[in-house]
Design goal:
The chain is built from 22 helices and 20 strands. With 661 residues, the chain is of the alpha/beta class. The strands form 4 sheets. A 9-stranded mixed beta sheet has the order 1-8-15-14-9-13-12-11-10, sandwiched between helices. GO terms for molecular function: ATP binding; endonuclease activity; helicase activity; nucleic acid binding.
Length: 661
């Protein structure tokens, strides 16, 4: 199956200021005085070094005493190792005493070492999230007075009362004597829980740097491809079709508890290595010094492969060797299970091959980020998901289709993240001319401008997070597969506002509508410039497709040209913003798989709620009046099936009401 999405990335306009900071780092440094700072930026944008600049400034100029950096796993700690910053123009170097880089070795009394650090004159400590949690439980929030607590991959925290990391953040904010720097490339969670509670989130100053900005600044990387491939037997036999051994690759094998796993994790690695060796296991040798496998190919070449699945003592040797990889030729492949996902740096990686369905969008987007780092000689990065093919005869087809929807959702999120930005303004006669904002300017009749700073913040900084929440909604998933189930008006004026209100419970009804306008414009116009799947090559210049008809300028929207002077929010409300998702599927999945998805989608969706049935009731009445019959549950049209389902629920509710009355 061809790539679902391919994007042109690089235009190379990256600059470095006189302190050695790249664009994203300079933007974060401008906000260095904030007590609570949230940095939301994609992988490879320089978040780690941005924290170094900010932390050193807080110590030198803001009266803070220490910087504590917490990462989710030990392998990520290498991103915060001692780094010389003075040669690039900054006033100090980032110096981590080896004793207080608690991610460098396994075991030991790390909580005790953490407490010792707090009482010492040392200024920088690096540890895991777990070590931070345990130390916090031991010493309490007061011990963190005048400390900068920097949490990498901040989406590991949550607003849920059971989240220990979230509890640490909430207690630090409540105490009020510490500074918190939160960093993440995906400010959302796979379980849909908010990362922060609204009252805590409001205290954070945000710095946002988009995927589009990051990729546009690259010197070498020009394209990112995302593809889903299907196998019908064992993935080991199918991997030959998607694994290019000339590419630097990270392979994530499926969990041993998943349906895709043919055997134990070590046996899977053995089979992969033997396959790479051309079927000759004797050609697989382990280098004792590095811990890497040296695998001789049938053509005589030797590949160096790091095995992060093995949890024997060899893993420590492999992790230490990975920290020393500085040249492209030092390593050819990594095989992993739960590691090498978020925050893992191997800049030469150009292909991430994930076997099996992934339940979390956060996980998949983090995996994709492993390949999107700029490096000399790397012009194309590829994410491939090798997944079990849903077959009509399989009893587990419902689960397969559900997992397929999750994969689709990820692709949609990436499409939106990588799309250009637009600057939408209300079209008002004789309006005062203002300085142009970044992005493609578009004037929209009837657009509600943000009425409060809160709404403005959501529109400017949190639309991507809102899209994640929206794409996870069961009704939106259903619309993605069967776009005719709901009318555009129902999607845009009823379903989407419900998602917004759930995601931002502090908004009023009018504020929800303001956010809805911005979201619809963002969805529709980014789809308007997205490359058409199946085309020979993408063409995303950041400008809408336009043509002239007399003196009128027409833009292409929803497959037709619309007069720019007549562009209104009412017109946008009449367009299904998810139709493009169905186009991607229908052009890239073969007929049998698509038919399987369609045939089983009713088993995927959740039972219709009373609220949803009430929402559809006006459409039921309109259908009955225009067709002179009631909608039929057995109709071929999925929209009619949905209306019939709503009718049955409304009637059942009326019967229950009559009985109880």
């Amino acid at each position: 199956m061809p790539n679902l999405i391919t994007h042109i990335c690089g235009t190379h306009h990256s600059t470095v200021n006189n302190m050695g900071m790249r664009e994203m780092q300079a933007r974060a440094f401008d906000a260095r005085n904030a007590q609570y700072l949230l940095i939301k930026a994609p992988p490879a944008s320089g978040k780690s070094r941005a924290l170094m600049y900010i932390g050193l400034d807080k110590i030198a100029n803001q009266g803070l005493k220490k910087v504590i950096v917490a990462v989710p796993e030990r392998s990520i700690g290498n991103s915060f190792k001692t780094t010389p910053l003075k040669p690039s123009g900054f006033f100090a170097d980032w110096l981590v005493t080896p004793k207080y880089n608690l991610t460098d070795s396994a075991g030991g009394h790390k909580t005790a070492a953490f407490a010792e650090f707090l009482a010492s004159s040392e200024s920088i400590l690096v540890c895991t999230h777990a070590t931070l949690r345990f130390a916090f439980e031991k010493v309490g929030a007061e011990a963190f007075k005048d400390c900068v607590v920097a949490i990498d991959e901040f989406h590991h925290a949550s607003a849920d009362g059971e989240s220990k990391l979230g509890e640490v953040v909430r207690d630090l904010i409540k105490e009020g004597h510490s500074h918190v720097v939160a960093m993440t490339g995906s400010y959302f969670r796979g379980d849909t829980l908010p990362v922060l509670r609204p009252e805590d989130e409001a205290k954070f100053q945000r710095v946002t740097y988009t995927y589009y900005e990051q990729l546009a600044s690259y010197q070498y990387l020009k394209q990112l491809g995302i593809g889903y491939h299907f196998y019908s037997e064992s993935y080991i036999t199918a991997i030959e079709d998607v694994l290019d051994l000339s590419k630097k690759t990270i392979i994530h094998i499926p969990s041993v508890n998943s349906a895709e796993s043919p055997k134990g994790k070590m046996e899977q690695v053995d089979d992969l290595l033997e396959f790479i060796a051309g079927g000759d296991a004797s050609k697989v040798k382990r280098d004792a010094a590095s811990g890497f496998y040296h695998v001789e190919r049938p053509d005589g070449t030797t590949l160096k492969i790091a095995d992060l699945v093995d949890d024997s003592p060899f893993r420590e040797t492999v992790l230490a060797s990975l920290r020393k990889v500085e040249q492209r030729e030092n390593l050819d492949m990594i095989v992993a299970l739960g590691m090498a996902k978020e925050g893992f740096d191997w800049i030469w990686c150009e292909h991430v091959l994930t076997v099996g369905y992934r339940n979390s969008m956060t996980e998949v987007i983090q995996i994709i980020g492993r390949a999107t780092r700029d490096a000399e000689g790397k012009t194309h990065a590829q994410f491939t998901n090798l997944v079990a093919e849903p077959i009509e005869e399989q009893s587990a087809v419902t689960e397969a289709v559900n997992n397929m929807l999750k994969a689709i959702t990820v692709s949609l999120i990436m499409e939106q993240v990588l799309a250009p930005n637009f600057n939408f303004k209300t079209k008002v006669p004789d309006a005062q001319v203002q300085e142009p904002a970044p992005g493609v300017p578009l004037l929209i009749k009837g657009l509600q401008e943000p009425s409060t700073d809160r709404v403005k913040q959501i529109i400017e900084e949190q639309l991507d997070e809102l899209k994640v929440s929206m794409y996870q909604n069961p009704l939106i998933k259903l619309v993605t597969i069967q776009p005719d189930v709901f009318t555009p008006a129902e999607i845009n004026t009823q379903i989407i506002p419900r998602v917004i209100a759930t995601h931002f419970p502090d908004l009023t009804e009018s504020q929800v509508n303001e956010v809805r306008h911005a979201l619809l414009l963002d969805l529709n116009f980014k789809n308007a410039v997205s490359p058409d799947p199946g085309d020979p090559g993408p063409n995303t210049t950041g400008e809408l497709e336009t043509k002239h008809e007399g003196e009128n300028v027409l833009i292409k929207l929803a497959k037709k040209f619309v007069n720019l002077d007549e562009l209104s929010i009412d017109l946008i409300d009449s367009i299904n913003p998810f139709e493009h998702a169905y186009e991607i599927l229908s052009k890239n999945l073969d007929e049998r798989i698509l038919r399987t998805i369609h045939g089983n989608v009713t088993a995927v969706r959740l039972p219709m709620s009373d609220e949803e049935a009430a929402m559809l009731w006006p459409s039921v009445k309109a259908f009955t009046q225009s067709r002179e019959r009631e909608p039929n549950l057995n109709a071929q049209d999925p929209r009619e099936q949905r209306l019939a389902h709503a009718l049955s629920i409304v009637r059942a509710a009326k019967r229950d009401q009559a009985t109880s009355g």
